[in-house]
Design a protein that fits this description.
single chain, alpha/beta, six-stranded mixed sheet, four-stranded parallel sheet, 15 helices, 12 strands, 14% strand, globular, binds 4'-deoxy-4'-aminopyridoxal-5'-phosphate, P-phosphate_BS, transferase, cysteine synthase activity
Length: 428
């Protein structure tokens, strides 16, 4: 190219570039968050277009799968760790270790935050939980122990084991530590369930008491089932966010209950501002909550006699359903207006329906929740002007090996039949 040719080309390129004038933007400094915990919460509410259009009722899902740890449990893990630090049960970078018994989501959230705060994590979980959760935990550096599913009265049940490991860790520290270190106190936590549960942290009801542990290196049993920080995360976070996002205009809140923290915290917050908000639970196959809400008893004896159902929730849905009363469930029971039993086939149908019609790829408990929203709306005969809010707890990516595995469902005799949703949407 000659110099003139080169010059002409540059001018042409410049002219072309001038066509792309950047539009002026508002400069903001409040959009940078501090570390991974800054990404937790403040999730959007998403309108589920297919269901809302079909029923004429606004169905809004809190997009909790957008949390950095991938689920609603980030809020709970953050609150439990924050509170533990505030009350002196945990101190960052002391070699302290957090123990938890969980089907996965809470463990992933704890492990995520633990890494950012300088703690180690031990997660004990049943061995029938979807494999991808174990992979995520290991990638996050958690020590994972998988045990056979067992009843809550069994010492080897995963929550009980997590408690024991935390205590043992504390005892070992006491031996290692020099004389000035105090022996960690053991605290007893009695629940409504038959077992006596020993906890490595004081009863969270009595928070005014100063912790008496003197050592810095501790074993901390997070205990999401009994820990009131779980409730607080939703009462002070998720609930107010939903109220703000809907300007208080909502008629019902629907959620499944695993520990009960979400439905108790959000439900109580919403009812405290408007007692007419209907609070209902979505309860999967094999869980006792439906019977508890409808008939006052946790399980139907006839149905459960001679089967494992009494203590285990026998469903492909992970994260919700329970057969015992925990503190967080007890906080929820007085405010529950209704319950909807959701079969595995219905949850599966809803999940496939949502991908087909909305491009929303959700986890099993989200699908259960949305199925319960539809059932509630049909039962009430609601139409225009009503709004129902639910929780989209996690995404389908956590469920490839079971709930989103067609082969697995075939073996488990669970049909993939979208008409279970479509018929419900059409019938009048
Ligand atoms: N969905 C998923 C995926 C979960 O892991 C959990 C918690 N176990 C829930 C829903 C239920 O939430 P909560 O424990 O607050 O009842």
């Amino acid at each position: 190219l000659t110099t003139i040719g080169l010059y002409a080309r540059r001018r042409k390129e410049k002219r072309e570039l001038e066509q792309f004038t950047p539009r002026p933007i508002e400069l903001r400094s409040d959009e940078i968050v501090s570390g991974v915990t800054g990404l937790i919460g403040n999730t959007p509410l998403v309108r589920i277009n297919s269901l809302s259009n079909a029923l004429g009722v606004e169905i809004l899902g809190k997009a909790e799968f957008l949390n950095p740890g991938g689920s609603v449990k980030d809020r709970v893990a953050l609150r439990m760790i924050d509170d533990a630090e505030r009350f002196g049960y945990l101190k960052p970078y002391t070699g302290s270790r957090i123990f938890e018994g969980t089907v996965g989501s809470t463990g992933i959230s704890i492990a995520t935050i633990a890494r950012a705060r300088g703690y180690d994590t031990t997660i004990i979980m049943p061995d029938d939980v979807a494999e991808e959760k174990v992979k995520a935990l290991k990638a996050l550096g958690a020590d994972v122990e998988r045990v056979r599913p067992a009843s809550i009265v069994d010492k080897k049940q995963y929550v009980n084991l997590a408690r024991q490991r935390a205590l043992k860790f504390g005892e070992e520290d006491a031996i290692e530590a020099s004389e000035h270190a105090a022996q960690p106190e053991l605290y007893e936590l009695k629940t409504q369930s038959e077992s006596i549960l020993v906890s490595a942290h004081p009863d969270h009801n009595n928070r005014s008491e100063e912790p008496t542990l003197a050592m810095d290196r501790r074993g901390y049993f997070a205990d999401q089932f009994e820990n009131k920080s779980n409730f607080d995360a939703h009462f002070n976070g998720t609930g107010p966010e939903i109220w703000r996002q809907t300007s208080g205009r909502l008629d019902a809140f629907v959620a499944g209950a695993g520990t009960g923290g979400t439905v108790a915290g959000v439900g109580r917050y919403l009812k405290s501002l408007n007692e007419d908000v209907c609070v209902a639970i979505a309860d999967p196959d094999g869980s006792g909550l439906f019977n508890k809400v409808k008939h006052g008893v946790m399980y139907d004896r006839k149905e459960s006699e001679g089967t494992k159902r009494r203590h285990q929730v026998d469903t492909v849905v992970e994260g919700i359903g329970i057969n015992r009363l925990t503190r967080n469930i007890e906080m929820a029971l007085p405010i529950l207006d209704d319950a909807f039993r959701i079969t595995d086939a219905e949850a599966v149908a809803m999940s496939r329906y949502l991908v087909k019609n909305d491009g929303l790829f959700l986890g099993s408990s989200s699908a259960c929740n949305l199925m319960a929203c539809v059932k509630l709306i049909k039962q009430k005969g609601w139409n225009e002007g009503k709004t129902v809010v639910t929780i989209l707890c996690d995404s389908g990516t956590r469920h490839y090996s079971k709930f989103w595995n067609d082969e697995y469902l075939r073996h488990a005799n669970i049909p993939i039949d979208l008409s279970l949703v479509e018929d419900l949407l059409q019938r009048d």
